[in-house]
Write a structure and sequence with these properties.
Helix content is 49%, strand content 11%. It has helices at residues 5-32, 37-46, 75-89, 107-116, 149-169, 190-207, 233-243, 262-271, 297-313, 333-353, 356-364, 368-379, 384-393, 400-406, 409-417; strands spanning 50-52, 60-61, 64-65, 94-96, 98-99, 120-121, 124-126, 173-177, 181-182, 213-217, 227-228, 247-252, 275-280, 321-324. Strands 5-7-8-10-12-13-14 form a 7-stranded parallel β-sheet. Strands 1-4-6 form a 3-stranded parallel β-sheet, with no helix packed on it. A two-stranded antiparallel sheet has the order 2-3. α5 links the parallel β7 (124-126) and β8 (173-177). The two termini are 25 Å apart. Bound molecules: beta-L-rhamnopyranose and manganese (II) ion (2 copies).
């Protein structure tokens, strides 16, 4: 299925006058306070978030998986799905591939299809948390950290192959998330596991083309229960520093223990020029991977406040690789992704509204009440007219979810692909 430009224009006709009224009203009141609305709209219009190739079908839990009709059965169909979301939102202009779930058969054809859908290839992800059919060694007891040389070599070789695949597609970064860890005290020697991991990562790092970056993801638990080798941002940063300049920490919102102050982590990593990638999702308890902004929208806003501050004040930090890392058990994956994109844009817009100078002055005057007022003034502003305006400007629709339903996208996909297709992934 492909959405035509004319369809988008028709969809916008009914909502445009209501949008204009709201947008003009908001612009007027914001401009009075000295906000540069145009600048915010441009920033929102530029902001692109990669969609992971594994989030387009139904996800599961260890208890089961309930499939969703019309799931993409191939990489081509996954790219088409992202193209659909992108044409409605103009915010999803990239895909992040997980290898070997999504190895292209025909590179040229995939590249052409992606270009046709205006999709770029973002970070490629390696997978050493599952054993593959024809694989010699098992990752049951770890991969890059394993005590066995043969296992480590196999895992290193896999990462190098992922770099090669990504390079052929035009990716510029590798994301390494390790499941390595232990489920029982005494199972692993912490020091040996970390040393092996560092050496393996250096080997992979040295294999990357000179313009590539490595993102090292951390996670406190799961799939193992007692410990993970890269449990937190400190460990990730230590490993990144051990690899070199082009290795960075990746923050996945769901990879923190309850109540961790993620915004502070973001801030410190950017100060050190070491925040490379970002995975959006939301959670209540663990790595729940649910819709961005569905549980803790204020926390997301505070995180964006630090991201915006860092983007404005930390030239030492590279441009970030943004990605949604979510899994969809109940909702239509495409609708869920659209909701996530909307939440990200909203949090970003609100953070851009914060009067940074006033905040700094209030901090210096130790006016704690004022500090909170400044943050909450921005947070309480309904910024949706700004997000809609940015979408309109770039050729998207005013209301993507309504448009998705009106166009009966899912029904069409089911007609084209059938009810029982299954997407690769988790
Ligand atoms: C992990 C982690 C990685 C993702 C896998 C599928 O929990 O978030 O980023 O590649 O899940
Ligand atoms: Mn992740
Ligand atoms: Mn995760």
């Amino acid at each position: 299925m492909k959405i035509q430009k004319q369809q988008l224009e028709d969809l916008n006709k009914s909502g445009i006058s209501d949008h204009k009224t709201k947008f003009d009203f908001l612009t007027q009141s914001l401009s009075k306070d000295g906000t540069d609305v145009e600048n915010i709209i441009n920033k929102l219009a530029e902001f692109q978030v990669a969609i992971p190739s594994w989030a387009l079908g139904a996800g599961g839990t260890r208890f089961g998986r309930f499939s969703y009709g019309g799931e993409p059965a191939s990489l081509e169909q996954k790219i088409e799905d992202i193209g659909l979301i992108h044409s409605l939102t103009q915010t999803a202009g990239a895909v992040s591939l997980h290898i070997p779930w999504d190895v292209p058969n025909d590179y040229q054809a995939i590249k052409e299809l992606a270009a046709l859908n205006k999709i770029k290839f973002d970070a490629v992800n390696s997978n050493t948390f599952q054993d593959q059919k024809d694989q010699k060694e098992t990752y049951k007891y770890g991969s890059l950290s394993n005590t066995s040389v043969a296992v480590r070599e196999q895992a290193i070789a896999h990462n190098k192959e992922v770099i090669e695949i990504g390079n052929k597609l035009g990716s510029k970064s590798l994301t390494v998330w390790l499941a390595d860890g232990a489920s029982f005290p005494g199972q692993n020697n912490f020091q040996t596991a970390l040393t092996h991991t560092q050496n393996s990562l250096i080997d992979i790092y040295e294999d990357m083309p000179a313009d590539w970056k490595m993102f090292i993801e951390y996670k406190p638990y799961e799939p193992y229960f007692y410990s993970t080798v890269i449990q937190d941002w400190g460990t990730s940063l230590m490993l990144a520093n051990g690899c070199g300049e082009r290795a960075y920490t990746l923050v996945d919102l769901g990879h923190h223990l309850p109540n961790t102050n993620i915004e502070q982590i973001v801030s410190i990593l950017m100060l050190k020029g070491k925040l490379g990638g970002f995975h959006f999702n939301d959670s209540k308890y663990g790595d729940d991977d649910i819709t961005v902004g569905s549980i803790k929208p204020y926390a997301l806003f505070l995180i964006f406040n630090e991201l915006v501050y860092g983007m404005q004040n930390n030239p030492q930090n590279p441009e970030l690789g943004w990605m949604i890392d979510a899994s969809h058990n109940l909702k239509d994956p495409l609708e869920d992704l659209i909701q996530s994109l909307e939440a990200i844009q909203e949090a970003y817009a609100k953070a851009l509204l914060i009067d940074q100078n006033a905040l700094r002055a209030a901090q210096e005057a130790h006016d704690v009440t004022r500090c909170q007022e400044i943050l909450q003034e921005a947070y309480r502003t309904d910024v949706r007219p700004l997000v809609r305006e940015a979408r309109l400007k770039t050729g998207g629709v005013i209301n993507p979810i309504a448009a998705y339903r009106k166009l009966e996208v899912r029904e069409q996909l089911i007609k084209e692909r059938g009810k029982n297709t299954i997407a690769t992934g988790l």
